[in-house]
From TrEMBL:
Source organism: Devosia albogilva
InterPro entries per UniProt: Amidohydro-rel (IPR006680), Metal_Hydrolase (IPR032466), Metallo-dep_Lactonases (IPR052350)
Domain Amidohydrolase-related, residue spans: 5-295
Pfam families associated with the record: Amidohydro_2 (PF04909)
Source taxon at top rank: Bacteria
Lineage of source species: Bacteria, Pseudomonadati, Pseudomonadota, Alphaproteobacteria, Hyphomicrobiales
Family to which this protein belongs: Belongs to the metallo-dependent hydrolases superfamily.
Protein name: Amidohydrolase family protein
Length: 301
């Protein structure tokens, strides 16, 4: 199986300052994450993916020192030069900060940076959503930064709970020239009937907009090992809602190594979509990520 991993991370904890890995632990959705407080580099990803043909990857910002977003880009440039991975990068930027114009302009001038990720402020529950909250997708200051993405040739990776997807739909409608890629399947952590019904409706609201795509990843559940049976419904619902051409599979490694090994996750994806035509499977595992993140696989070979 040929894979273009659409969402992965590298870090060298001796050289990089990642506050969430180096300082006081954060409240993480998978629970304890001590097991990933170790270096993770291209040779580790290749070893984890050894049973597959890994043709490229998309590096997603790692919550590097927020005072130095350009530092992560420079570090990734060196990693690419020595290892050939990642293919491209989604960099850090803080859209509501005064330095956003300069940071985004720098990212836009970097040949392998395709977009940015800035996790907007999120409510803890659907009932707590406050329209226009500072730091949210409705915050005017945040949107001023978002408006600078398209002029700099940048897409946007969105990581937020599903109950903020109506705000995301409003965002992509207001900025139709900007490609938005939803991370981690909209975070359907609540697998109750009520929780999944809310998630599906929110995903439908976002999917009505052609400039929104989704990465099927990050499907682990606290205290459970990753399995195809546990995630089949979510995967198939996502494909049904967004359509084959706007979905892509990703590992979220090394983070999702907390819930399953690489083989289990990608073999699980393959099992779930085994009834689809081969051409559609190729889009999910490789083609869509190459198109959406503008990766020339021949150039990187």
């Amino acid at each position: 199986m040929r894979i273009l991993d659409a969402h992965q991370h590298f870090w060298d904890l001796s050289a990089n300052y990642l506050p969430w890995l180096a300082d006081k632990p954060v409240n993480f959705r998978y629970g304890n994450y001590d097991a990933i407080k170790r270096n993770y580099m291209p040779e580790d990803l290749r070893a984890d993916a050894a049973e597959f043909e890994l043709v490229g990857s998309v590096f997603i910002e790692t919550e590097w020192n927020p005072e130095d977003p350009a530092g992560e880009v420079a570090w990734v440039a060196g990693v690419r030069d020595t290892s050939g991975l990642p293919s491209v990068m989604v960099a850090q930027a803080w859209l509501d900060r005064a330095d956003a114009p300069d940071v985004l302009a720098g990212h836009g001038r970097t040949s392998f940076v395709r977009g940015i990720r800035h996790k907007p402020k999120a409510a803890a529950a659907p009932t707590d959503v406050m329209k226009g909250a500072p730091g949210s997708m409705g915050d005017p200051a945040w949107r001023r930064g978002y408006a600078l993405l398209a002029p700099n040739g940048l897409s946007f990776d969105l990581q937020t709970p599903w109950w903020h997807l109506a705000e995301a739909a409003d965002l992509v409608q207001a900025f139709p020239e900007t490609q938005l890629i939803l991370n981690h399947t909209g975070l359907p952590a609540d697998r109750s009937d009520e929780g999944l019904a809310g998630w599906r409706e929110a995903m439908r609201i976002l999917a009505r907009n052609s400039n929104a795509a989704v990465k099927i990843s990050g499907l682990g559940q606290r205290g459970q090992r990753w399995s195809a049976d546990a995630n089949r419904g979510v995967v198939l619902d996502t494909i049904d809602i967004f359509g084959i051409d706007r979905c892509m599979f990703a590992s979220n490694f090394p983070v999702d190594s907390l819930v399953g090994d690489y083989r289990t996750i990608f073999s699980g994806f393959a099992e779930i979509v085994s009834d689809l035509p081969a051409a559609e499977q190729e889009k999910l595992f490789l083609g869509n990520a190459a198109r959406i993140y503008r990766i020339d696989l021949e150039e990187r070979s």
